[in-house]
Amino acid sequence: MRLVLTWLINAIALLAVPYLMHSVDVTSIGAALVAALVLGLVNTLIRPVLLLLTLPVTLVSLGLFIFIINGFMFWLVAQWVDGFHVDSFASAIGGALLYSVISWALSTLLLKKSDG
């Protein structure tokens, strides 16, 4: 159940990004749900490989290169999913940052940790 709630929170966060950044466009709730699912899969499967391959650059940039990787993942999903569009790579970096902050805030407010 928690996985479904996280997916819905991420879709809501994705729907909120175009209101704050006009260079990102999500045409429908369905597109947001699909994009959130694909973004979660890409971040789970591809992002760790990219982080490992770019570790030297990430260390030299004191971790700032991770913003580039997150923007690339956001841009990549926008290329794959119909109804989710990002104008440029710079917009993808900003959109990924906004998406992360909104998703984190909503998750913090709506999901409670179980006492384990």
What does this structure look like?
With 116 residues, this protein is mainly α. The protein has one domain. Helix content is 75%, strand content 5%. It has a two-stranded antiparallel ribbon with strand order 1-2. The chain is globular and about 40 Å long. This is Phage holin family protein. It holds the Pfam family Phage_holin_4_2. Keywords: Membrane, Transmembrane, Transmembrane helix. InterPro entries: Phage_holin_4_2.
Question: Which keywords apply here?
Answer:
single chain, 116 residues, mainly alpha, two-stranded antiparallel ribbon, 6 helices, globular, Phage_holin_4_2, Phage holin family protein, transmembrane
Topology of helices and strands:
Layout: H1 2-20, E1 24-26, H2 29-45, H3 47-53, H4 55-60, H5 65-80, E2 84-86, H6 89-110
Antiparallel strand pairs: 1-2
Helix pairs in contact: 1-2, 1-6, 2-5, 5-6
Tell me briefly what this model is.
This is Phage holin family protein. By secondary structure, the protein is mainly α. The protein has helices at residues 2-20, 29-45, 47-53, 55-60, 65-80, 89-110, and strands spanning 24-26, 84-86.
N to C succession of SSEs: HEHHHHEH
Class based on secondary structure composition and strand pairing: mainly alpha
What's the shape? globular
User: Mean pLDDT score, rounded?
Assistant: 93
Domain count? 1
Number of strands: 2
Radius of gyration: 14 Å
Main beta sheet: 2 strands, antiparallel
DSSP strand content: 5-15%
> Portion of residues in helices?
over 70%
| Neighbour order of strands in the largest sheet | 1-2
Uncertain ranges: none
Q: Quickly count the helices.
A: 6
InterPro entries: Phage_holin_4_2
Transmembrane segments: 26-46, 53-77, 89-111
Protein name: Phage holin family protein
Keywords: Membrane, Transmembrane, Transmembrane helix
